[in-house]
Amino acid sequence: MLFIFIFMKFSLFCSYLECFNRFSEVAELKLVWWLEVKGMIDIRILSSNTNYAAYRVFKLRNRRTIGFRHRAVGFHINVGGITSTEVRRVSLDPSQNETQHVREREDRWMEVEMGEFFNEFGDDGTVQLSLREVDTSYFKQGLIIEGIELRPKDTGS
Predict the structure, then answer these.
(1) Entry's InterPro entries (predicted)?
(2) Neighbours of 138 (CB within 10 A)
């Protein structure tokens, strides 16, 4: 089970139908200076000896999006309590994103790869994933988060 912890002022219900997809609730960022969204999963429910990619699934409210159009957000992954470092910085705006492709999915949500990790033994512990944008010199608004997907990463072998 994936747990999403939201540490900012979010509305858990969207007022328009297009927000709803697989889940009855999504998180919509209203207006903040500092953004940090964390999720974690018990590593024992993942297959061992498997490389995983983590994907943030989201939308941007076109007219009400502030602070994401020309600025990158940081993604962090922490496996088994090892201190996390920023895995990558990515613009969530698909028109600004040339190297870290934001991709529109068939369900009309967008996704971006946060990073990857290897689950060697599947021992006790958690995988913690976070999105951070803590530059307080501007407001952030209009990000709608459906969740995080973990998928086995094709190793090409």
Answers:
(1) PP2-like
(2) 10
Determine how many CB atoms are found less than 10 A away from the CB of residue 123.
10
Quick check: is 49 in a domain? Answer: yes
CA pair distance 119, 73, nearest whole angstrom = 25
17: helix, strand or coil: helix
Q: Could you give the CA distance from residue 155 to residue 15 in angstroms, rounded to a whole number?
A: 41
The three-state DSSP-derived secondary structure of 46-57 is CCCCEEEEEEEE
Eight-class DSSP state of 136: T
Count: domains in the chain: 1
Full-model pTM: 0.78
Q: In which domain, by residue range, is 79 found?
A: 2-152
Domain CATH for 132? 2.60.120
Encode pLDDT of 54-93 as tens digits.
999 998 887 777 877 778 888 988 887 776 666 788 888 7
What is the maximal distance between C-alpha atoms in the chain?
A: 46
Tell me which residue has tokens 């018990």: 42
Task: Give the model confidence (pLDDT) of 115-151 as tens digits.
Answer: 888 888 877 788 999 988 888 788 888 888 888 899 9
